[in-house]
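Proteins fold reproducibly. Take a tokenised chain:

. . .
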Amino acid sequence: MLKTFRSSIFRKVWLGIVLAVAVVLLAAGLQWSHWSRLLGVSGVAAWADAHGAMWQVFILGCVLAFAIAYFISRPFVARITRLQRLAEGLARSPSPAQALAETDDELGALGRSLNRAATELRSVVERLSLESGRLQAILASMVEGVLAVDYELRVTFCNQAFLRAVRFKGPAAEHLPLLEVVRDPSLLDVLTRVLVSGEPVKRRIQLAGPDGRSLEIQAAPVAAPLRPGVIAIFHDITDLERLERVRTDFVANVSHELRTPLAAIRGYAETLLDGAIEDKEHNRQFLEIIKSHAIRLNNVAADLLTLAELESKAESAVVERFSAAEALRSALAIVDPEARSRGVSLGCAADEHLILSGERHRFEQAMVNLLNNAVKFNRPQGEVRVSASQSPDGRAEIIVTDTGIGIPLQDLDRIFERFYRVDKARSREVGGTGLGLSIVKHIIERMGGSIHVQSELGRGSAFTLLLPAEASPPKTS
């Protein structure tokens, strides 16, 4: 009832009725005044009585007008209130109207219009929600980073790929200033330029930080009359650039490795053809040099084929169980002549019951490469020791130590790269293809293991191999 009293409709209806009653009573009063003048003094008393009766009728009319206004306006107020609630709720949750069109008057027509508007709006909202959900799922699953900012450079959307690329650790980045997400002048410059010019921009940047991720940005303006923004797609090309550098280095290194022996072979062959073949004193020496460079070329080709096979991740041709101690002794026997010629002593301490699984010839190849390096880069009268035992976690632990020249700290992370050499001058002197340690790493990882290195300049190096293993029971006589 209180709501009805406060309604403007109720007040207008009530005021209209009261005014109508007042006009009627005023007209009646004027009429009584006219008749009282005609009747004279005797009519004054009658007029007084009529005047009092008029006020009684006026008060009664006001009460009656109030009651009529209340009962007339009450249903209108209720219906209009329901229409108001529906209209206000359309923006929040469009739903079918609730019996708003039960009459054929103007309010009924308005109710039917709101019913249709609610149905259409609900359909539009459902379609937009579906499309928005699809778009969010697509953007969230993209490998490329996606970032959208407004004209104040506040983040309005970003996916996880972008947050990973910029190394953002917070729970969410939406509605944050971009400077709180990533502090990179080149990125801010790209987005600002798009906002100012309204033209798309494509640029390659490198983010500041320890890893220095390289990103290719494609930024375009977002059309909006009042609140323009920018949407940017980020392609992480760090791995592509690294692969390109590896490819370039690989081609350069292979070209160098092939060019040197080929130039020597060609030079000595031309010397022999120019008459040196008749020189009994030097022709054999020239042929030996040609043979050694041919062997070097063959070794490069063999190592490249081995590396290509290991990197193909094809299944091992022959998987067998073998004794780690026997494989180590076989590898030491191959390296022993080189060690003797350089005055380096070899030693082995291996658990005879340690069993490995995989391609034995590949494992021996890896150990030969490690031992060869330990011998070649050792000092005269140096030592190379290899040990094999079972670690507390059940894996085979094979350690190759030497007393050689050691490896600088800044080179430790790169020694397993193809053709990478710490001391290029000494590497050329002692020979080798520069692929040995890369082959070792691939073989050990192919067997399900890992390899680590510790080194100190002037004191030697230690390579530790961890491989899946099992301990066989000791033989009983």
About this structure: The chain is about 55% helix and 15% strand. Residues 61 and 83 are 33 Å apart (CA to CA). The two ends are 109 Å apart (CA to CA).
